[in-house]
Amino acid sequence: MSRIDQKKLRNIGISAHIDSGKTTLTERILFYTNRIHAIHDVKGKDGVGATMDFMELERERGITITSAATHCMWKDSFINIIDTPGHVDFTIEVERSLRVLDGAILVLCAVGGVQSQTLTVDRQMRRYHIPRIAFINKCDRSGANPERVIQQLKEKLNHTAVAVQIPIGLESDLQGVVDLVTMKACYFDGPNGENLRIEDIPADLMNQAAAEREKMLDAISLFSDKLTEAILEENVTEELIYDAIRKGTLSLAMTPVLVGSAYKNKGVQSLLDAVIRYLPSPEDTSYTVLDLDHDEKEVALTQSPDAPAVALAFKIEEGRYGQLTYIRTYQGKVEKGDTLYNTRSGKKFKVGRLIRMHADKMEDIDLAYSGEIVALFGVDCASGDTFTDGSMNYALSSMHVPDPVISLTVTAKDNKSQENMSKAMNRFCKEDPTFKSHVDPESNETVISGMGELHLDVYIERMKREYNVEVETGMPQVAYRETVTCKADFNYTHKKQTGGSGQYGRVAGYIEPYDEGDYHFENEITGGSIPREFIPSCDKGFQACLKRGKLIGFPITRVQVVINDGASHAVDSSDIAFQQAAIGAFREAYAKAKPIILEPVMKVVVEGPSEFQGSILATLNQRRGIISAATENGAFSVIESEVPLAEMFGYSTVLRSATQGKAEFTMEFARYKPVPQSISEELIKKLSTQRKTA
Amino acid sequence: MLKQEFILKSPIRILQKATQGGLGSGNLGVFMARPGVGKTACLVHVALDCLFKNQKVAHVGIGESVEKIQLWYSEILSDLCKTFDMKDPRKLNEEIEQNRLILSYSPVTFTVKKLAQDLKDLAEQGGVAPEVLLIDGFDFENLHSGWDTLAAFKYLATERHMEIWFSAQTESGADTNGHGKIPAPCHDVENLFSVILFLEPTGDKVHLKLLKDHDNPLNQNLPLKLNPNTFLLIDE
Question: Does the pLDDT at position B219 exceed 90?
């Protein structure tokens, strides 16, 4: 199979806030590129559901859960598309996709504009330096206001947003778009908008189009001296404009903005043209890896097909025939029959089947070159693993994985279910690093942890449907922490010298609060009072104590331990002795350091009609929420607050009833804060009761 | 540490002494200047002074996003931390966020009535009752019923026991000798303000002039100057 021309390859993602229309947009893209031959609505009026929402749960709930990958051809370009979820509970999917993509389409609702999850996905795009184009969707909706959305892109996301189109009509009158580059009107005829008709701009829009074009030229001339000259000489060509917009977009200095309505079949073909024109190919992007054999020094990769292969496994899926591993190749090529090396596990494996995916349908291929996104079958690996040809020990930098903030106990209803439940957990944990499971050593219960109630809800539902496992769930458990509030000294001797070989070690120093991270160990020993070889053992002993605090048994954080004195015995001192001394020392000091309990506090953003602002504020205030900001956005208000996670369970139901279902909220972890005294006492009492009854 | 130092050394302390104890509850004050001279920085300094004393502050941005306003605070705090040799402003930022509320409005739809209703909701339903209100970006130029609108603010300040500070943009070349002492656009409504300050760039500094101090004779020797690079108020 011949190599895809890198210049004509686009690896893109489609990201946005929930319900902005990403999946519908992808469906239309697949239709217009002849990948599918029928269009289905997302919320299945025809009972089928959009092609990309292939998980049953997705179709039923009308939300996208997993990020499915697919590919298509537009004109003579090859596009890999990953459709990604917008809900913050599934942020890991978006992050993973962005790691392997070269460009993105940011979809915004023409009514809702920049919403809270838009902010999150934008931050994610910035983290991975992903050039993007914005598509203002749903221009057919009542209240659609693309100009306001562009303003929000500028103000809220700090984008240099430049309109390259304006709509012809809005709301129910949406008829097409004006292309400000060609200065022509585009209409989308046919039952599915598949026939493009290009005409002159309607007379009543001419002034507006001219003004917007001038604004566009003014903004993009910064990226091209040739265009600036051409503007002065009044001989601007379309090529110069395309070139300038591309340069601005690739350098992340601007975001071209297009408009349309995927649902009403308007603007999608122009969007595809924009993907080819303005988003990068693998050749436009440089990639680096870390050389694990040389202190993780950064090494630049080349695009050459003859260079050694380097690929990243970014998505794992368990299916009927085994594990499917999605990979992105960054250098060289991966061929069926090749032997690859997993730099994390150190294992080699043979490439059996090589597949190109289209949502849940597979196409066997023999070869994948750099820049391509394909899948492997039957490879035992984890998401985030790097594969090479074995000649070098590289790792693509690890993907940012947020810590889980909520956990739940799950109990299978019978033995058979228990077995299947374990299989389900293993699979889900492999697929999603933000979903964790473990067995609590004290209660012997299985505990699952994730990014939010919805996140865990979805996995429980998947266990039921895919593994036939019915579970009972316990109360959600918040991930508390403990910390110290003042400096406390320790001077502890661990001694067991009752005949035969003994143990001896003394450590002295102090513990104190530490703001710059979870834990810091400082060695201020002078004069060798503790031999150097035992210092790491002291550190190990202290760290062992961090796992369970004395107040409520949760991990200890934000503490610094300094050792400045000690003593050893020529015969009886050992690693174990100093570990035990450190453990004793920490326990001695911890109680004196006035420990407190910390709780996770979430940034909660609620959006709803302004008429419900008072009710929304009340729901947050009742939950110990601290209101930090409120934005009036036309008929909508957006309220930002910080609310302890412990108060957020069941909030979606409460909000729904307080606002007639018209408000929605997102939440993400903000920080850890001390719990109020009364709650602290309650927690300590509860733990003490649990211990007595255990 | 920084809080105590700031409270003791804050030039706002000097401003309060110069203005007979500050603005006071129920009163309106305004910082006037040309664009880019430092009006918002002054408002942020007033806010920080209050926040460090654990007072509740609401910063209202008209035509400014929440994120932009937050950026002002984090930049000025960062500069303050450098000045007072403090390493990490994050913790301080977190502390002041407890008592700071940011309200953002579109200039097209903002009204005093809306603001009053929102403050009422926040107090009754949200448990937030700011003592100091900062209004940044209020359009004095196109004030059709100027007196009535400012009177509504005055009423709001009295009813909610707040002091309200404004920023007002003057024209280029505006001075304090044109309309008596108070330049446009506040000259027609000066009686509603208790304290009026004018920021004037002079050389490499920005001089803060006191144009009105309640009904008292003016303290001509107000030594407040603004560093134009950091926008920190510096005490001479």
Answer: no
